[in-house]
Amino acid sequence: MTVNTTTWQPAPPSSNNGSWTRFNSLVEAELRDFVDKNRAQAGRISRSFPLMWDHIGSALIGGKRLRPRMVHLAYTAFDGGDPGRCATMAAAFELLHTALVVHDDAIDRDFVRRGQPTIGAHYRDHASDQGLSTPDAEHLGHSASIIAGDLLLAGALRLASRAAAGLPQADELTATVHDAVFASAAGELEDVLFSASTDRPDLQDVLEMESMKTAGYSFEAPLKAGALLAGAGLDQADALAAIGRRIGVAYQIVDDVLGTFGEPGTTGKSAESDLREGKRTVLTAFAAEADGFDDLLAAFRRGEVEADEVRSALKDCGADARAQDLARSLLDEGLRESRRLPLHSAARAELEAVCMHVLTRGN
C-alpha cells in the first residue's frame, strides 16, 4: 500500500495580507501536531493504525484553507488578540471539513479528490492487491473512509473545545461547532434521500439542503465562531453568520456547476459523479422545468445515454446560466448586509475578495 509522503507545506496565502500568512502557519502547525500526536498514539495500539494516520495526514495537505480563512476574517474584524487560540479553532474547522469530505467521498462512491487518490482508494487498492474482488475491495475502501472521517470529526470537536476553554462564551462557541455538524448531517441525509426519491424537490428544497450541508460548516459557523472568539456580541456574530449563509449557498451552487461542467483536471473531482448518483442540485431543479429532462437523467443513470447529452440539455434550458445568476444574487445580498456591520476596511475588503473567489473559482 503506497502512502503520499509529500512533506507538510503551508497552504498558499489567500490574499497578500501578511497577517493571514502568519496566521496560516499557526493553523498548519496545529494540523501537523494533531496528526503527529495521534500517529504516535496509534502505534501503541495496533500495527495497522499508524498507516491510517499517514493517510489522514496526506488528506490534510493542500486545499485553500477556506474555513480557517473565515475564522481568521471574523476574528480580526472584531480585533481578537490571541492568534494561537484562533488558530486552534480554525484548525478544528479544517478537520471538520476534511471529515465531511472523506465521508462524502464514501457516500458518492468516489475514489479521487483534488486529483489525488482518496483514503478509501488506498485501502481499495491494497485489498485488490490481496486478491479481493472489485466489489469487496471497494467496500473495504469506503469502510476505511468512514473510520477516517470519524477520527477527523472527533479531532475537530476536541480542538474546538480546547480553543473555547476558559472563555465566558465557551458554551456558545462549542454549540456553534456542534450545530454546524448537526446541520451538515441533516443536509447530507436530505441529499441522499433526494437522490433515491421519485419525488422531485423544488428549488427551495435544494437550497435549504445546500444551506444545511455546506454553507453552515463552511461559512456560517466559522464566521460566527471567529467573531465570538474575538469577544463580539451574539447579535453581531449572528449577523455575520447570516451573511456567511448566503455566501455558503452561493459557493455550493457554483460547486454544483463545476461538478457537472468543470474539468476534472482543474476541479480535482469527477464531472459525472453528481449526475451518476442522481444528485438533486440547483442545476437539476432548474432543468426539471423542461419537458423530458427527468427522463433523460434517468436514462443516463441506466447507462443508456452519455453524460455529454445531459450536459447539453442543461445548457439548452439555461440551467447553468440561471444557477450562476442566483449565486451572484446571493453574494450581492451578503455584501449589502455586511455594510450594516461595523467591519473595518480590511475585513470588508477580505469579505469582498472571498465573494469574488466564490463566483470565479474554476475560471
From TrEMBL:
PROSITE patterns: POLYPRENYL_SYNTHASE_1, POLYPRENYL_SYNTHASE_2
Cofactors (names): Mg(2+)
Keywords: Magnesium, Metal-binding, Transferase
Entries under SUPFAM superfamilies matching the protein: Terpenoid synthases
Source domain of life: Bacteria
A Pfam family it matches: polyprenyl_synt
Signal sequence coordinates: none
InterPro entries the UniProt entry points to: Isoprenoid_synthase_dom_sf, Polyprenyl_synt, Polyprenyl_synt_CS
Sequence similarity: Belongs to the FPP/GGPP synthase family.
Protein name: Polyprenyl synthetase family protein
